[in-house]
Design brief:
The chain is an alpha+beta fold and 233 residues long. The chain has 2 domains: 139 residues, no CATH class; 46 residues. Helix content is 18%, strand content 42%. It is built from 3 helices and 14 strands. The strands form 2 sheets. Strands 1-2-5-6-7-8-9-10-11-12-13-14 form a 12-stranded antiparallel β-sheet, with no helix packed on it. Strands 3-4 form a two-stranded antiparallel sheet. A hairpin with a 5-residue loop joins strand 10 and strand 11. The N and C termini lie far apart (111 Å).
Length: 233
């Protein structure tokens, strides 16, 4: 019998390919267990319940999801970041942790944000930091959101409207809200506590400036200071 090396190589390649495909198929469908890795490079990790419900995403910027709502994903109008996204038991976004930073034309930019959302609404608690060159702010925000759920399916339609019509359309679709409290460092370098009413109007403001000057302002519904307390009072 004459040995045909070319036919043998073809046969070997076919068998090897079949084995690899078989391992991949059985591994993907039957293997369930724990593994330990010293290093793993990924672009995105999806954490799911046994029924497939998405509960958390860890992703780079390129593969970061839009807005998951009950298992359906809607485009986000302006989110471009890497980080983590949290979903509730129904597969709806309920908060996240995002971050970023770069130098642009010699100006340093940095952002970081940990948020928690109201049910099918936007964030109501946010811990954040923001830097734009010499302007820096960081702290904790509490935000009031509408009672109704956001109509996510209206986002693209609203985004296509003329700019002067968008604010009213967003409000009609239950987007928006008012800040109720802030505690942190202001852009001017002062540390402050600002408490607002249900309409988002500041009513009490405690401030310590960079030079140590301290005061407490009481404000009326028009935003005017009605009384100020200082250490000398």
């Amino acid at each position: 019998m004459t040995f045909d090396a070319q036919k043998a190589l073809i046969a070997y390649s076919g068998v090897l390919t079949a084995v690899v495909v078989g391992v991949l198929i059985t591994g993907a469908t039957r293997w369930v267990g724990a593994g330990r890795f010293t290093e793993l490079d990924v672009e995105r990790i999806n954490v799911r319940e046994p029924d497939g419900t998405l509960r958390m995403v860890v992703s780079n910027e390129a593969r970061f999801p839009g807005i998951p709502v009950r298992g359906q994903e809607y485009p986000h109008p302006n989110r471009s970041t890497a980080g983590m996204l949290f979903m509730n038991e129904e597969g709806t976004e309920t908060g996240g942790l995002v971050w970023g930073g770069r130098e642009v034309d010699g100006v340093r930019h940095s952002t970081g944000s940990l948020t928690f959302d109201r049910y099918e609404q936007d964030q109501v608690v946010q811990m954040f930091e923001e830097e734009r060159g010499p302007a820096r702010s960081s702290g904790l925000r509490v935000v009031e959101r509408p009672d109704g759920v956001m109509q996510f399916d209206q986002l693209e339609r609203i985004g296509a409207l003329p700019r002067e019509q968008q604010a009213a359309a967003y409000a009609a679709a239950n987007f928006g809200g008012h800040q109720r409290a802030f505690l942190g460092r202001e852009f001017d370098g002062a540390s402050s506590l600002v408490l607002r009413d249900g309409e988002g109007r500041p009513r009490l403001r405690m401030v310590v400036a960079q030079d140590g000057a301290a005061k407490i302002d009481f404000l009326d519904e028009t935003g005017q200071v009605s009384r100020t307390l200082t250490p000398e009072d």
